[in-house]
Design a protein that fits this description.
Blueprint (H helix, E strand, L loop, with lengths): L1 H8 L8 H12 L8 H18 L3 E3 L5 E5 L4 E5 L5 E5 L13 E3 L4
Antiparallel strand pairs: 1-2, 1-5, 2-3, 3-4
Helix pairs in contact: 1-3, 2-3
Length: 110
């Protein structure tokens, strides 16, 4: 089903109940992207990573395997766990937010 497909593509960190965590992130950041609901927001987070890899957005990888992605044009930021699950996706208020994130710059362009 589409719902299952979206959940798999936009899976959230598994250290807490993923549906609760997704709802929390949607409540706080969904409006940043005009997301209609948590599944729409999860899909957008997944697609953001795919676009970032295809277009070569700035990325940082930390020692724990967390990948942080920044799109300067839209000022969008996301972080993904080593297993590909999404940690967060939002538009920070601070212009230097990505610069202050831990990790080493990496190239992930396909």
């Amino acid at each position: 089903s589409r719902r299952r497909h979206t959940r798999l593509q936009g899976d959230w960190s598994s250290d807490v109940c993923s549906s609760d965590l997704l709802q929390d992130h949607f409540d706080r950041h969904g409006a940043d992207f005009n997301a209609k609901n948590p599944d729409d927001y999860a899909r957008m987070a997944y697609e953001f990573l795919q676009k970032a890899k295809a277009e070569g957005f700035p990325m940082k990888l930390d020692e724990e395997g967390v990948l942080r992605v920044w799109e300067p044009k839209t000022r969008s930021f996301a972080a993904y766990n080593r297993d590909g699950t999404t940690k967060t996706y939002f538009k920070p208020n601070s212009r230097d937010y990505f610069d202050r994130q831990p990790g080493t710059l990496v190239t992930k362009k396909k």
